[in-house]
Amino acid sequence: MMNRFQPMRPEARQRGFTLIEVMLALVIVATAVPALLLTLDQQIDGTAHIRDRSLAQIIAANRLAELRLAQRADSVEGLRGELRGSEEMLDRTWYWRMVTTATEVPGFSRVELQVRTTENENRPSLHTLVAYIASAAQED
């Protein structure tokens, strides 16, 4: 007769995980999954911000090109001051602000374009473009 407290032969033992091993694995997974989700969420936010900044650069470049085309027919001096406006691009409204000031060099103006997703001036602009434009008389 076999003693019930006798150790089992190795081939008769069942193989598998103990409850402690399973619980430890669950703790590790439960800690890692939220951290991975947070990292993924930050990556998605970063990608959206880069997209918005790229579109803001395009809008600023478009406004500057329009200013240069308008300046060919007009004088830069007539464009000095501040202009505000909005533009639709990719089903969104983008707000821009353009400030044109005189420089120390006659016939040249400094243009600063700021592009935002809101009209709120307290929020930082997504993109600021600074350019210098010569009057049409200087370019000839």
Structure, briefly:
The protein is of the alpha+beta class and 140 residues long.
What does this structure look like?
This protein is 42% helix and 26% strand. The chain has helices at residues 19-73, 136-139; strands at 81-89, 92-102, 108-116, 127-134. The chain contains two helices and four strands. The longest helix is centred in the N-terminal third of the chain and has 55 residues, at 19-73. It is rod-shaped, with a radius of gyration of 33 Å. The mean pLDDT is 84. The protein has a single domain (17-139), classed as GSPII I/J protein-like (Pantoate--beta-alanine Ligase, Chain: A,domain 2, 2-Layer Sandwich). The chain has 140 residues and is of the alpha+beta class.
Task: Please write out the topology.
Blueprint lengths: L18 H55 L7 E9 L2 E11 L5 E9 L10 E8 L1 H4 L1
Antiparallel strand pairs: 1-2, 2-3, 3-4
* Adjacency order of strands in the biggest sheet: 1-2-3-4
Instruction: Give the C-level CATH assignment.
Output: Alpha Beta
What is the count of β-strands?
4
Poorly predicted runs of 5 or more residues: none
* Percent of sequence in beta strands: 25-35%
Give the count of helical stretches.
2
The global form is: rod-shaped
How is the main sheet built? 4 strands, antiparallel
Helical fraction equals: 40-55%
Give short descriptive properties of this protein.
4 strands; alpha+beta; 140 residues; 4-stranded antiparallel β-sheet
